[in-house]
Amino acid sequence: MELTLQAPLDMHLHLRDGEMLENIANASTHTFSGAIVMPNLVPPVSSKEEVTAYKKRIRHAIGNEDFTPYMTLFFKPSYDKTFLENVKEEITAIKLYPAGITTNSEGGVSGFDVEELRPALEAMSDLNIPLCVHGETNGFVMDREAEFVHIYEKLATAFPKLKIIMEHITTKESVAALDKFENLYATITIHHLLITLDDVAGGMLQPHLFCKPIAKRPQDREALLKVALEAHPKVMFGSDSAPHPKHAKENCGCAAGVFTAPIALQLLAELFEKHHALENLQAFISGNATRIYGVSPLKKTVILEKKPFKVPSDYNGVVPMFANEEIAYRIKEVKLG
Amino acid sequence: MELTLQAPLDMHLHLRDGEMLENIANASTHTFSGAIVMPNLVPPVSSKEEVTAYKKRIRHAIGNEDFTPYMTLFFKPSYDKTFLENVKEEITAIKLYPAGITTNSEGGVSGFDVEELRPALEAMSDLNIPLCVHGETNGFVMDREAEFVHIYEKLATAFPKLKIIMEHITTKESVAALDKFENLYATITIHHLLITLDDVAGGMLQPHLFCKPIAKRPQDREALLKVALEAHPKVMFGSDSAPHPKHAKENCGCAAGVFTAPIALQLLAELFEKHHALENLQAFISGNATRIYGVSPLKKTVILEKKPFKVPSDYNGVVPMFANEEIAYRIKEVKLG
Predict the structure, then answer these.
(1) In Å, what is the CA distance from A316 to each residue of A53, A90, A324, B9, B136?
(2) What ipTM does this complex have?
(3) Optimal mutation site among A147, A222, A252, A258, interface B, most CBs of chain B within 10 A
């Protein structure tokens, strides 16, 4: 069986920088037309010059023009309209991190005082720049996202024209918020559609499945599956593919992140087929994002075939999800046009 | 400041076998008069001959008589009264594992049919042999223990004279069950008094804090702390100290278990002092267990002093809790009598 996807988009991707960027850029982008590239480098990407320089490094690492990096800025409350008007042409969105909540987020937002955020967020709203949010409090690990929903609601109410993307949602509470506020959208990863905390810590501890937000309960996964499989119009695929060197995952004090980009489409095909929802995959993987972000992705056709594929043990030292395991689909062809 | 404890008992200890037993026996037993030794070897300890042989290996590994291993059998529904009468003199309790729920528990009990268990459990009840239970279902990792409480209640009701020890309890639901059934008792570890899931997976992933049952929510820890600090008469200290080689903890697919025995008393002293409950430590660490099990422990005096102690990086290749960190108490003297 073959499956053809047009212009797949990954609306949440970590490409890192330096040697890691060089190591994983091609594997992470080959099957996608484009991706929203997250700005949590050290230091974070927070000026026009940094965005353009990072974009150039990404293009250099990929080595061709067959992929569009949709660039983002690391949100700071100090951004004003003049700054944003100037940087707008270089970015597709701005990413907000609560301070200290995930990899390289130390410079993020503490407290969510609407008035403090108003100048920056109103300017973004006026300029139609979407706000991507890592929505977790610093509460108990299983509650962090559900606790953050009231902040989403507060922001959605205070800035009704601002497009707010709830990134990598993992709970039924976030899913429920989607239908309550017109301006709330969401990305969902492939791993949060496949695993729960049981897969991370129910048997042996599995560092390669450890991520933030941590995988939640079976009921949460069910809620995510429902909106992904029906390609709910406010939901987009975002891998949150987050490479770390093998030693940073397998040692004591393992870093958070699952590396999925090279196998994301293959896994999605298998999952959507299993649930008899293949007809919705194109919308989940591209159509919804194109409409929500108003982008015109590079024309790229990806043909998958249903043939067992053994996932490599690593991609240049980065261990992917399902390393050394067999998955049902493989990439047959990727072509421009 | 000095603190003197008489005849400390560890009512739940893993001493393993072979090379691991030789490596950790002294560190695990030095500060205790005795301990309930768990039988989940490969194959499990399930005959009189195996108990006596294992006891002999433990004595050999320790190399002195300054410690009493209270031996246990691995529960099988096939045990009958004749068998139990014969083995009774060699054991202090019998440990029941649900099948496949933790390290080396594959041969455990599947389903908890009272009538199937009746012959063995009535014989144990008649012979006054306590039943120690690892109380977890095979459900979602955060719910397994709370889900098991109804099985505890079923067993406690069906066998009202059988002493049932809920081992290493981690939830407020298990704490609540203590006061509902006269014949339910519990052990509590030091690590479950100190950590929650946040410590295991809230920041970086910490394999050395990964154990079964997994550490739960702050409210659960509060419930455990309350009954431990007041030395609730049905609650005993049991370290569940569970050594694994360093490589089995720090690699992919990390084994469950925290190694605490060598520092358990020191940590308990610090914790009880912090909560102004030092007057209850003797009961928690020895008095309650002596009464519940009806044992007369070896006379041993342990003097702790409040002086910073740097926990070693490992004990013969086994990484303890708080490795390389400083704790507030150290052992000043251990003497018989």
Answers:
(1) 24, 30, 14, 51, 40
(2) 0.93
(3) A252
